[in-house]
Design a protein that fits this description.
The protein is mainly alpha-helical. It contains five helices and five strands, in the order ααααβββββα. It has one domain.
C-alpha cells in the first residue's frame, strides 16, 4: 500500500488530505492498541484489593478506544472533502451509520459525565434503568464476559470480534481512497 499511498499524497487537491489519511490510519492503529489493552489484562476477582484499580484501568482504555474511533471518523471525513475523494462521502456515511455514530455516544458518556450527574445541567439525558431490582440514573457498566460497556440505556460492543469487523470495513474504505487516485492524477510517480 505504500507505493499506492504516494499516489494519494500527490494526487489529491487539498494539502491536508494526505495528512488526514495518515492520521486516520494512525487512529485505527490506536483503536487496535486500545482493544488489545482491554482484552490482554489479567482478570482480577472482586475480592482482590486491586479490583477497583483494574476496573478503572479497563474503563480508561475503553474511553481512549472511543476517542480513537471518533478521531478516525473525523480524519476520514476531512479526507473525503478533497475533490478527488468526495465521491466516497456516501460510503463514509455508511461507516458512520454502522459504527462511528454509536461509538461517539460512548465517548460522550465519558467526556460529559460531569454534566449528567444528579442535579447537574444535563441529568435528564440519562435514562433511569432498573437492574436486579435497583433503579439508578448514572450507569457505567462493564461486562467483560459479554464484551460490553454500558452507559444509561446504551450498550457498546467492545469485543475483539466487533473491532475486527470495524477494522476490516475501515481498511476497505482506506483502500478505496487510495484506488480513487490513479497514478495518472499523481504525475506517474
Amino acid at each position: 500500500m505504500n507505493s499506492d499511498y504516494r499516489h494519494l499524497v500527490f494526487g489529491c487537491q487539498r494539502p491536508a488530505t494526505a495528512h488526514c489519511f495518515d492520521l486516520a490510519r494512525r487512529s485505527l492503529r490506536a483503536a487496535e492498541v486500545q482493544v488489545g489493552r482491554i482484552w490482554s489484562r489479567p482478570g482480577v476477582s472482586a475480592e482482590n484489593p486491586q479490583y477497583v484499580d483494574a476496573v478503572h484501568d479497563v474503563l480508561i482504555d475503553v474511553h481512549f478506544y472511543f476517542i480513537a474511533l471518533r478521531n478516525l471518523y473525523r480524519f476520514l471525513y476531512k479526507a473525503v472533502q478533497d475533490p478527488m475523494l468526495v465521491h466516497l462521502e456516501p460510503g463514509l456515511q455508511v461507516l458512520n451509520d454502522v459504527w462511528f455514530k454509536h461509538y461517539a455516544k460512548g465517548r460522550e458518556a465519558f467526556e460529559h459525565i460531569d454534566q449528567r450527574l444528579p442535579g447537574e445541567k444535563h441529568e435528564n439525558k440519562l435514562l433511569e434503568i432498573s437492574e436486579n431490582g435497583a433503579s439508578r440514573k448514572v450507569h457505567y457498566g462493564l461486562s467483560m464476559r459479554s464484551g460490553t460497556f454500558l452507559h444509561s440505556d446504551l450498550s457498546f460492543d467492545i469485543s475483539q470480534e466487533a473491532f475486527s469487523r470495524l477494522q476490516a470495513d475501515v481498511k476497505q474504505f482506506l483502500a478505496m481512497m487510495v484506488e480513487s487516485v490513479s497514478p495518472q492524477q499523481s504525475g506517474n510517480l
